[in-house]
């Protein structure tokens, strides 16, 4: 016969309560993923955002202000298309309050979002319709370079603001005010481009690859790409011959190449027709240590275009 004293009974009740609490915590962790840990900057009350590449980082920082900590998956000066994610970046994606990316731009990011961050992700390609790959391009899919049309970037920023405001309702008014201010600046930039490129001797831009379709369409220019959407696509002799013929037909004085890729293709065509090769920046990233941002690079592009196209 086992006799349980009142003191022993109290101990048993305490142990039972402790086991119940432990079980509840374990259940909660299974449901919510305690093992992933808190978002990196949770201690300071900011939202943690992972941006897939620079223009999305820029828009998120402009809209989020002091309410966000934004991590760019692409190092400054690196070309974003062929990004390979590190394990630490995969963990950042999983823990982030919001992941801002553009499906079709970076296959590795698309796959990582599908695996780890579907609930927190914002696919900015759903905000504004993407263009088909240029006619004659060997690329499949659609042109992702939407930010080169400032009005499209404004739409993306508004959508980011909506997501951030939902995550941080106490500061939603300030978030939306910053988005409105960014839209005002982007619309002013749009007017500068429209005015600056309205009266030009030429309207064709010969580019090393087809990154400038949105800019060309917005401002009534014609993009003549030497290769397709992929910046590392090899130019065949046929590509070079066709580009040189078109450049001669349009009396092009400048062949454009990008800041983050080799200028060799553009320089080859430029030599062939007696033109010069210059940078037209797709604003996919900012060089390390540079003080530039989206607006300063876009203003520099406008100056370059006006000179190359002989605009008044």
Automatic annotation (TrEMBL):
Residues 123-143 are annotated as: Disordered. Residues 1-26 form the signal peptide. The keyword Signal applies. SUPFAM superfamilies: Helical backbone' metal receptor. Keywords: Signal, Transport. Coiled coil: none annotated. Belongs to the bacterial solute-binding protein 9 family. This is Zinc ABC transporter substrate-binding protein. The lineage of its organism: Bacteria, Bacillati, Actinomycetota, Actinomycetes, Micromonosporales.
């Amino acid at each position: 016969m086992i006799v349980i004293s009142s003191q022993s009974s109290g101990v048993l009740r305490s142990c039972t309560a402790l086991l119940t609490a432990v079980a509840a915590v374990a259940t909660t962790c299974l449901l919510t993923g305690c093992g992933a840990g808190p978002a990196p900057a949770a201690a300071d009350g900011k939202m943690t955002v992972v941006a897939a590449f620079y223009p999305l980082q820029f828009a998120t920082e402009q809209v989020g202000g002091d309410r966000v900590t934004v991590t760019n998956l692409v190092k400054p000066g690196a070309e974003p298309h062929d990004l390979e994610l590190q394990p630490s970046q995969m963990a950042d994606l999983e823990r982030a309050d919001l992941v801002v990316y553009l499906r079709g731009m970076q296959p590795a990011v698309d796959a990582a979002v599908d695996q780890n961050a579907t609930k927190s992700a914002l696919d900015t390609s759903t905000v504004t319709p993407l263009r088909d790959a240029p006619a004659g391009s060997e690329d499949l899919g659609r042109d992702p370079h939407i930010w080169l049309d400032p009005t499209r970037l404004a739409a993306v920023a508004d959508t980011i603001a909506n997501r951030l405001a939902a995550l941080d309702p106490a500061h939603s008014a300030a978030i939306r005010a910053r988005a409105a201010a960014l839209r005002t600046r982007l619309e002013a930039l749009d007017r500068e481009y429209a005015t600056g490129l309205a009266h030009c001797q030429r309207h064709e831009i010969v580019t090393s690859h087809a990154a400038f379709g949105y800019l060309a369409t917005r401002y009534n220019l014609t993009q003549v790409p030497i290769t397709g959407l992929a910046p590392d696509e090899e130019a065949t002799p046929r590509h070079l011959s066709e580009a040189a013929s078109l450049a001669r037909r349009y009396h092009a004085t400048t062949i454009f190449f990008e800041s983050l890729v080799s200028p060799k293709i553009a320089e080859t065509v430029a030599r062939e027709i007696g033109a010069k090769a210059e940078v037209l920046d797709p604003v996919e990233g900012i060089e390390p240590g540079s003080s530039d941002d989206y607006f300063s690079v876009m203003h520099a592009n406008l100056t370059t275009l006006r000179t190359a196209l002989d605009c008044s």
